[in-house]
Design goal:
- The complex is a heterodimer of chains A (about 375) and B (about 475).
- Chain A is mostly helical.
- Chain A is built from 16 helices and two strands.
- Chain A has a domain of about 210 residues: MetI-like (MetI-like fold).
- Chain A starts with a helix and ends with a helix.
- Chain B is flat and about 100 Å long.
- The chains are: A mainly alpha (about 375), B alpha+beta (about 475).
């Protein structure tokens, strides 16, 4: 009994600094945020209780509605796209080859640099006369050549597979050995066509797509709740780019544990690569998918940095998120701070985050992962 | 008959095996190609930005990788000119007594009249923004350009896709002198303007840009030195961005702040997290479950919920009791906004680190403590002398991850450090770069700053890759 009490005293001494911080910067902070959300506090005058007025006002506030729409669209689109792409890339790369360490490090590069560095670089690339528009233009220019290359490659591949099958060899449509030959042949043929002048790059008008200073949306003229503002789409592209590698590596780690024999058995049963992907790969990494989806949703719902860094480079309404809304109401420049209003917005963000976490917990429990 | 059949089977078998082996090779080849493609996609933008940060104008269109700053001929010219300008082959300059020789050549088509170019040293303000309010010395006030000397013409033909133009190459040499006495000046800009019809070919140093429809070849600095030429934007981030009040280099101050903040935060995190983690992992006490629940919960609540109160806590100096403000203890009687100390306080709560340390301590077998326990060592001794030395790998990983987190941290520095400029950390400083230089399209400075601020973390990553990649499977996504 004595040791137990001694243990308790020692434990709280060990925990003292952490608990002090936890109390001031977490418990007290959360309680105060909840309290403020029911008041009209403005940083200067003492707060007055106003009941649910702030929460009602949120839904009449154009900026909040934009923020809510942007946050939800951002979270859903980015999560879906990056999870899918990360899984596909991991499946493609899931091979036992030498030197994968080097590539892993290279893929991880965008994830370790700060949000400011990446966002500044993307801001630069999204300029009207920037790299993104240039790549877009070059791609359009080279479209006939690229199309010819793809068409040639497919033709050669089909011809080869048909021929191999007539020789009774079990070639699949994506047989790697034949694919290498097809790509080389198609590459050579395209090069010949270009040098002889049969094929030429198209003349296309200069691409002057405005990514940042615009209020337009994708799709243009879509109803409010489905319209992705173009500057927000730019942030989506950036976010997908920076987060894919992290998730891809998580998937790769999981895929390395899936026994090779599963794929070999399926392959003997005549399952092609696509069937193998849906029947074996996706089910066996389901636990990781849950983790990735949750992390991605939480991360994207709280997106703040990119909006702050974009600053006046894009219209506020087009990029504002719930997290930035809270900041914006707290420090609204020349206006009076609306702390109560900001706190109500923050509560909304917190509840949304908790719902995602609880949903994941519940799913994980019921699926037995 | 049967023997023949088996032989045939064996041959077929071998052929099939051969065929399968070929497929494996081909697959490996395709996988490498794909990995290379992915690597280009993910590293490409960073690399392209790093290369473009050397350009005079990173917004040039179409974007190209033919960067004059990467041509060795320009390096040696820059070194020679730097020596001539201020006796400094690395950073150049324009000092009293300097004689800077220069040559420029034009293509003049047949039938076009040659007229002598006009050479001036312009009074050009270096950049916009934060450096613009400083008083500086202009090379224009001290430089004099010698009369131009026309070299013998050389006949030449210019061939373009649709035509062939014959003419000659006309070259001029001149010198720029620093006469009399005066200060050493950072840069020596130059504008050379010709008549219509004379086409700029090249010069001792490649022109920074062509203005007025190609008539004016403009040089940012014709006595740059190698580093002053190749890393011009980098030198500018240090030299041009200065505090108007103290003339202190802001970028240098930001780097210092970032390192200080990262260092203090590492120490604070290691101490607090290892102590709390030890208690949660090894001691049985009332309220343990509750505290662990809070550790998990604290990681899920969005920063923006907590920041409202925490901002006020800093503003009010944590706690005021009867006229005494708690932050006075650290020397901040008027609140802790705009101070690194305040920033450390508000970011010191790191539930994730506590979680990591708890998990690690639980993986150490209890037996290692038992000998100490029998000796009657206190909890503190067991923690300090037995468990902590074993926790070096975890502490190392935590150090690296904390450094990365602190170095890259945006939200709290953005809230806490608003003025003066010299109190900011690198990410927030870069944001004020964007606000001041982005507006005028001066992306060279911004990219140079961004590249430099990425370097420490990249070095850390290359050296301690393992910790980062384990962090992925450990804690999940990025902080």
């Amino acid at each position: 009994m004595r040791t137990k009490r001694a243990d308790t005293v020692a434990a709280y001494l060990f925990l003292l600094p952490f608990l002090a911080l936890l109390t001031i910067f977490f418990l007290y902070a959360t309680a105060r945020a909840v309290y403020f959300s029911f008041t009209d506090y403005d940083l200067f005058r003492p707060p007055n209780w106003v009941g649910l007025r702030n929460y009602v006002a949120l839904f009449n506030d154009a900026l909040f509605l934009s923020a809510l729409r942007n946050s939800i669209l951002f979270a859903v689109v980015v999560t879906a796209v990056q999870t899918f792409l990360a899984l596909v890339m991991a499946a493609v790369l899931n091979q036992k080859v030498r030197g994968i360490g080097f590539f892993r490090a290279a893929f991880y590069m965008p994830s370790i640099t700060s949000s400011v560095v990446i966002t500044l670089i993307f801001l630069w690339m999204f300029q009207r006369r920037g790299l993104i528009n240039y790549l877009n233009e070059s791609l359009q220019r080279a479209a006939p050549i690229l199309l010819a290359f793809v068409a040639l490659a497919i033709t050669v591949q089909v011809a080869q597979v048909v021929w191999e099958r007539r020789r009774a060899l079990p070639a699949t449509w994506t047989d790697p050995a034949l694919l290498v030959i097809s790509l080389l042949v198609a590459g050579g043929a395209t090069w010949l066509l270009v040098t002889t002048g049969v094929l030429a790059a198209r003349d296309v008008p200069q691409v002057d797509f405005i990514w940042l200073q615009t209020r337009d949306t994708i799709p243009a003229g879509a109803p409010f709740w489905l319209a992705v503002p173009i500057p927000l789409a730019a942030i989506m592209i950036q976010n997908v780019f920076t987060t894919i590698p992290t998730f891809m590596l998580m998937y790769l780690a999981a895929l390395q544990d899936v026994p090779r024999s599963h794929y070999e058995a399926a392959s003997i049963d005549g399952a092609n690569a696509t069937q193998q992907f849906f029947r074996i790969t996706i089910p066996s990494v389901a636990p990781v998918t849950f983790l990735v989806l949750t992390l991605s949703m939480i991360g994207t719902l709280q997106m703040f940095d990119q909006v702050a860094i974009f600053g006046d480079a894009a219209p506020l309404r087009s990029v504002v998120t719930l997290a930035y809304f809270v900041y914006n109401r707290m420090f609204p420049g020349a206006q009076t701070p609306e702390v109560g209003f900001a706190a109500a917005g923050a509560m909304f963000l917190a509840v949304l985050t908790l719902v995602v976490v609880l949903l994941q917990r519940r799913l994980v429990r019921s699926e037995g992962y | 008959m049967r023997a023949a059949a088996t032989a045939l089977d064996a041959r077929e078998q071998r052929a099939l095996e051969h065929w399968q082996a070929r497929r494996r090779w081909a697959r490996a080849g395709l996988v490498y190609t794909l990995m290379l493609a992915f690597a280009i996609v993910f590293v490409g933008p960073l690399l392209f930005a790093a290369l473009s940060s050397l350009k005079t104008d990173p917004l040039e269109y179409p974007p190209t990788l033919a960067i004059p700053q990467l041509q060795p001929s320009n390096w040696s010219a820059a070194a020679r000119l730097g020596l001539a300008g201020a006796g400094d082959r690395w950073f150049g300059g324009f000092a009293p007594g300097a004689v800077v020789p220069f040559e420029i050549s034009y293509f003049v088509a047949d039938g076009v009249e040659v007229s002598e170019p006009e050479v001036i040293v312009p009074r050009r303000r270096p950049g916009a923004g934060l450096g613009a309010v400083l008083t500086i010395e202009y090379a224009a006030d001290f430089a004099s350009v010698s009369p131009l000397e026309r070299r013998p013409d050389v006949p030449m033909v210019i061939t373009t896709a649709d035509e062939e133009r014959s003419g000659r190459k006309v070259s001029y040499t001149f010198t720029i002198r620093y006469e009399g006495d005066g200060p050493t000046i950072d840069r020596l800009p130059l504008d050379v303007t010709t008549a219509v019809g004379m086409q700029y070919l090249d010069s001792t140093l490649t022109a920074s840009r062509l203005e007025r429809r190609g008539r004016t070849a403009s040089f940012n600095d014709v006595a740059p030195g190698v580093l002053g030429y190749v890393l011009r934007n980098y030198v500018r981030t240090f030299n041009e961005v200065r505090s108007p009040a103290t003339r202190q280099s802001l970028f240098l101050a930001w780097i210092g702040n970032s390192f200080t903040f990262a260092f203090v935060r590492i120490v604070v995190t290691l101490v607090i997290a290892s102590m709390a983690g030890y208690a949660l992992a090894r001691l049985r006490f009332q309220g343990r479950e509750l505290i662990f629940m809070l550790v998990l919960f604290a990681q899920m609540v969005p920063l923006q919920v907590l920041f409202i109160s925490n901002y006020l806590v800093l503003r009010d100096g944590i706690l005021t009791i009867g006229g005494f403000t708690l932050s006075s203890l650290w020397g901040y009687p008027g609140g802790m906004l705009n101070s690194l100390t305040g920033l450390v306080f508000v970011t010191a709560l790191n539930a994730g680190a506590v979680f990591i340390m708890k998990q690690f301590f639980e993986s150490i077998p209890r037996e290692v403590e038992e000998a100490a326990m029998i000796d009657g060592a206190s909890h503190w001794r067991r923690y300090w002398n037995v468990v902590l030395p074993m926790a070096r790998p975890a502490l190392g990983a935590l150090t690296i991850l904390t450094f990365q987190g602190a170095w890259n941290d945006f939200f709290w520095p953005f809230i806490v450090l608003t003025s003066p400029e010299s109190i900011k950390t690198l990410p927030i400083g870069l944001l004020s770069f964007r606000n001041t230089y982005g507006a005028v399209g001066d992306w060279g400075l911004i990219l140079a700053g961004a590249v430099m601020s990425a370097i420490p973390v990249i070095i850390l990553f290359v050296v301690f890759q393992r910790y980062f990649l384990e962090g992925v499977s450990f804690g999940g996504g990025k902080e």
